[in-house]
């Protein structure tokens, strides 16, 4: 019924309580958004849950929803932030940081869309800034561990410190990164 309508027209109908307009927006974007989230989460159920939560929020706020640019930009931004909230609250930040640091994984795993490129560029810059703010020894350990993929034993030998010291610096660096990237979100 509403397939020929633009997103903006559908949003206006949604504000007036037309549930079929909501259905059209949902079916127009659902699969794209699930794939978008899946690229980060590697879990279909989690990806579907995040997308569902965003659409539920849109439905709940349908009469007061304010979209500055386009619905597509609004929905992708909403899903991106919901994904980041999920990552933050479910303590998978360490894996996420590692994926950002590992350029090969990113180029193989994620599609090369403009939005993804911009997003990962921003995140990479935030990770780089956070790493620069680490104390010298923690920064050295973090780079060897997370960027050069040295084992704890290799780091300990290279820096002439104990493995426990290496573990301490990694824990400190990751905690700092979580805090810094939490502000980035």
**Kindly state the mean pLDDT as a whole number?**
80
Globally, the shape reads elongated
Using the CA coordinates, give the radius of gyration.
20 Å
Number of strands: 0
State the separation between the terminal residues, measured CA to CA.
38 Å
What's the assembly state of these chains? Answer: single chain
| Uncertain segments | none
Which sequence of SSEs, written as H and E, runs from N to C?
Answer: HHHHHHHHHH
Can you describe what's shown?
The protein is mainly α. The chain contains ten helices and no strands. The protein is elongated and about 70 Å long. The mean pLDDT is 80.
List the helices and strands and how they pair.
Layout: H1 7-15, H2 19-41, H3 44-60, H4 71-89, H5 93-101, H6 103-109, H7 114-133, H8 136-147, H9 152-159, H10 163-184
Helix pairs in contact: 1-2, 2-3, 2-4, 3-4, 7-10, 8-10, 9-10
Summarize the structure.
This protein is mainly alpha-helical. It is built from ten helices and no strands.
Keywords:
185 residues, mainly alpha, 10 helices, elongated, single chain
């Amino acid at each position: 019924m509403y397939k020929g309508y633009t997103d903006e027209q559908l949003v206006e109908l949604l504000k007036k309580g037309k549930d079929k307009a909501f259905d059209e927006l949902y079916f127009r974007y659902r699969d794209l958004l699930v794939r978008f989230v899946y690229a980060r989460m590697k879990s279909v159920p989690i990806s579907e849950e995040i997308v569902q939560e965003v659409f539920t929020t849109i439905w709940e706020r349908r009469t007061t929803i304010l979209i500055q640019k386009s619905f597509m930009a609004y929905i992708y931004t909403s899903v991106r932030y919901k994904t980041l909230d999920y990552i933050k609250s479910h303590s998978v930040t360490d894996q996420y940081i590692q994926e950002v640091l590992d350029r090969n994984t990113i180029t193989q795993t994620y599609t090369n869309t403009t939005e993804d490129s911009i997003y990962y560029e921003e995140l990479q810059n935030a990770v780089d800034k956070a790493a620069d703010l680490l104390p010298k020894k923690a920064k050295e350990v973090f780079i060897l561990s997370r960027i050069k993929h040295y084992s704890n034993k290799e780091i300990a030998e290279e820096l002439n410190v104990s493995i426990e010291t290496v573990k301490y610096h990694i824990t400190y660096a990751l905690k700092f990164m979580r805090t810094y990237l939490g502000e980035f979100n």
